[in-house]
Model the fold of this input.
Amino acid sequence: CYGVMRFVMENEAKGCEIIISGKLRSQRAKAMKFCDGYMKKSGYASSLYVDKAVRSVLLKSGELGIKVAIMLPHDPTGKKGPKTLLPDVVTVLKPKKDNLVTHPF
Done:
């Protein structure tokens, strides 16, 4: 899982989450969660930025479920990610140089 996460993060993703559930190492079913980076979980931004996939694998010991969520980066052209900015991104602009009044009266 760490190799997959490293591959995803090296390809300019903002975040990645992998959840594997089922009989992993013993008879008792468990879920393992692997997270890296920044991931939006709720709101309209999560539907734009997060790409999700779910698959199940049938093994001899039982069935494994794999969920992968990848948060895409912001791309102004719209090729690698959404065009719209995240709502929590703040851009600070430089102040305008106006004629400052030293003595108002």
Q: What stands out?
A: The chain is about 15% helix and 30% strand. The longest strand covers residues 50-58. Strands lie at 15-22, 30-37, 50-58, 63-71. The radius of gyration is 22 Å.
